[in-house]
User: Fold these one by one.
Assistant:
Number 1:
Amino acid sequence: MPTVEQLKTLFILSFWATKMYLPVFLVRIDERTKNVVILAGQENEIIIYLEGKWRYV
């Protein structure tokens, strides 16, 4: 289960992606690190860390 901070960030980033007409293909929790991974559009990968901070890869 994602943390509350991860869920808030996930909602905001998903909103931004769909606002830019990017399809969100995958939202998954990495079993090893417990980070949330989002795959959106052609080449967009975003990692959301446990504390809610995120990084565009």
Number 2:
Amino acid sequence: MRCPFCGNEDTKVLDSRQVEEGTTVRRRRECDRCLRRFTTFEKFEDSPLVVVKKDGRRDVFSRSKMMAGMLRACEKRPISLEQIEEAAYSIEKDLRNTHEREVTSSEVGEAVLKQLFSLDEVAYIRFASVYRQFKDIQRFMEELNELIEKRGALEKQ
């Protein structure tokens, strides 16, 4: 690794540790010539995951955009940021594990709903109301009834 300060090719690794759920390695290095220290990150480079929108447009998957929607749904609810981050990481991991380069926006939305259902019912309904674009109170009530049925089925287990 080349020293960013003096350009020397000889540097030594002082410390290594995994960060970001083990997908990145952080290395603390020292230059043999100028003795200055610096940090490098090695990250696994994965092929981009592309989201196909309902209108046919394609966007690169963004965990931060997905999390923004989840955060809005979870606003003023007893859900920690850590729980939301874990859910978002789990969704992304599951989407990437399909080994498909493209996923539909509906697959992403349904995966978010599944995670929110296990976190908080109110957040689930908030997200569903935007994602499924309830056109009237009848559709909203149908979603609430489905939620009640799912909860009842889980309680029986």
Number 3:
Amino acid sequence: MTVILDRRITAFRPDLAASHLRGQVKAPAFAEPQPMRVVAASAPLRREPRPDAALDTEALAGELVQVYERYEGWAWVQLAGDGYVGYLPDDCLRADAPAPTHRVSALRTFVYPGPSIKLPPLAALSLNAAVTVARETGDFAVLSDGGHVFLKHLAALDRFKPDYAGVAERFLGVPYLWGGKTSLGLDCSGLTQIALAAAGIAAPRDSDMQETGLGTAVAFDESLSGLKRGDLVFWKGHVGMLTAPDTLLHANGHTMDVHREPLREARDRIRDKSFGAITSIKRLG
């Protein structure tokens, strides 16, 4: 029996593979993983080690990655969270970065060089980025690298927002970006993954993986009745989330942003002009 491995989430190339894949794939060399963390606000995970290569996804600050190769400014990695494989800029990673203690709960927050909002910010962190808090001073959390973040924009790693549809709604109007996962730009499955993560629900990265791996199927007919807030609606290559039984929220290339619209109107347009018919509707919980 031939097993087909998904290259998006399997660390193997014709010349190199992860050591745990011995016996599953053929490669001239196998590499042991080196754990490192993302120290940039966000880092582009690209399909090839080139700045103009396709953006497959983004890794957020504090995210753990397994590094299998570092060469000429690029690291070939697998993200520990969703397993995605690709190339990150090497200068975005550190092996000695401390484990995070908190995550960003605001849509986006600034990192300041000191405890004042009047100082020029050093960086901007998006929702779910993870940081290490060394201490608190007034309204600020002082990070392990000396940066200061507004304390109320952070949450402990084990504190989640149960209304993931409400989290997704906070991204209304954010531009569509293929492979994006931040409040500067994100795609349909990135929006779903980020919103669910804020609620403590791990989700795969791409819409086909989410359709297979999340929730239970909901029966539906042409009327699209009986649906609930939070249901995920899938097409072949697209996903959206219901914020009401008849309202779809999705990052899409039609409006080029995160947009909310009547579900039936979206269903008809998508069916006729892009991804075809709805393939499934999934309910979580």
Number 4:
Amino acid sequence: MEPRFNLYASPAAAKVAKYLNSASKAVEDAGLDPKLPNLLLLRASQINGCGFCTDMHYKDAVAAGEDPVRLNLVAAWREATLFTGAERAALALTEEGTRIADARTGVDDGVWEDARKRFSDDELAGIISLVAIINAYNRLNVMAGSPAGGYVAGQFG
């Protein structure tokens, strides 16, 4: 598959990516369990139908030592027994934040309260920011038609 538009050859898109990457670096200081971001990035990318990002975050998670069985079950996390309570709360918040227009009130109060009980303010800020950033990346890649399958773990540093 050829991309509709090569984001990585566009100086304007490269500038946007630079700023999104800078924002992503700030999330690293939020104190999240190191395995959690890849689960959330993968789930949001699946929901948004972003093959490029799904490929990337699956491969990066495996390279970071995540169990491929858990990754294969991220799309069915509610039925899977392999996720902690905190991971489940973060996955629920990720889904609601990604599907924000599908809910009457945005994020359900129960989903928010469950996450609130399990994460500090900094961790919640990290999750919220991470979800916002990956949704932006998903939209860039889906609109540009960025193909999936060719990503190599760690490719973007």
